[in-house]
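Query form — protein Probable lipid II flippase MurJ

QUESTION: What is the three-dimensional structure of this chain?
INPUT:
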Amino acid sequence: MLRNLLTVGGWTMLSRLLGLVRDQLLAIFLGAGPLQDAYQIAFRLPNMFRRLLGEGAFNAAFLPLFAARYEQKGASNALKFAGQALTCLLTLLVIFATICEIFMPWVISFIAPGFKHGSSERFMLAVSLTRVTMPYMVFICAAALIAGILNARRHFGAAAAAYVTFNIVGISAIIFGAYVTHNVALSSAWGITISGVVQLGALCWAAKKFNLLPHFAFPHFTPDIKILFKRMIPGLVGSGVTQLNLAIDTIIGTLLPTGSISWLYFADRVNQLPLGVLGSALGTTLLPLLTKHVVANDKTGMQASINKAFDYALILILPASFGLIALAPLIMGGLFGYGHFTQKDIIYSAQSLQAFAIGLPAFVLIKLLAPAFFAQGDTATPVKIGFVTLALNLILNLLLYRPLAHIGPPLASALAGFTNLVIMGIILWRKDILLLTIYNIKRVGKISAACIIMAVTIHLTYKFTLSGALTWSPVPRIFSLFILIIGGAIFYGVLLIGFKLLNLKDIKAILKRRLSKN
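ANSWER: The structure tokens for Probable lipid II flippase MurJ are given below.
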């Protein structure tokens, strides 16, 4: 599991780093104003449906069926089923995207009501740009299904590597827009859609290489496809709850002052770096493993796998959370504080980042616990939990957005996320699937202590030696950020060894095995 986790995490890390470059260019050329706000809505809408359909409910229902068919009836039968599923999915997506294109002004009025009642220019920009980006949903959902097939057959690297192309195409589109067409927002919007085509092509090539390309067929709702969609509905509602939470944050954000959508976006992008790397890697690698334990009726193995993943997650995600809170102003200034991104934008986006970072551990651990339900075919329980957290998130947003402005939506999401995590944990504990021992609890305490010591140290170092870094030129600012991050990571590693959470001999053995395989 650790090897697969590192493989997916490595490719995801590369994709996230390229994503930061892409976001830096957006900040430089668009700043945090009406144009950036409109562009972010144009990207958020199709991306929301991608998460809902392509990476959410559909794959959660499809993968267990595909894996079971592959093992029981062979590759040909499984790929025929995959082809039927793919063509049916594409048919529905094309119809849905066409409807959205036609009624886009009404769609934007719903998802961004603040645009409709505020600047008409921002509203019209959002409508025109979203019409360009909407086809991305069709291509990327198809790509997600192909990636799911590859993951089901344990070709994790091929699927993870394909997603790097999104940011490569995105970076190219921004540069093209800045220096050729002189319309960065429109060029970037086209880059989103083109990247969907490129990702789908790359994944189809990889699937063909491994003899896993689905057998394409005329869309027909066979009994097998009906079973797939029947299983998909609870998961669709469950994933929909998560996306509705994001939609609520977006709607509230459009009611805030101009620039708030941009501040929230850039803060969330930094927060998504550790969340995407570790959370996606955990979810991708843990679901097939837990499914295997369920098929073998191995509850002990399931408990051990969850505990091991829980330990890996906390050791990696807690220092990221504390570090983001401690260095938020320097992080936002070092990454985005150039060009049209002002000092005000740095400060406000840093405040949003600190609120996002509070909920970071919860959202990673949710991605860890969710596969425990999915592996057993239980998609109903996460739905019920999701509705509770959806209601809580809405209430908290309404309570917090006026007094806390751009801090309100991320803080509401963080609090709702912890509520979701606690409820999921209690249910799995009662089912005797999650079994945290005294040993595990002691390790959580030690990891937390190490993170607090590390965060306080780097924050005081920043405050007393680098407090003027936000006024420096780009290179010294980034260099000082890099030194603090590296120094904090080394200090944290020393603390882990000092608290006997890591053993040098074990680390050397893992590195030796990795090097010998390469």
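ADDITIONAL NOTE: The first helix runs from residue 2 to 30.
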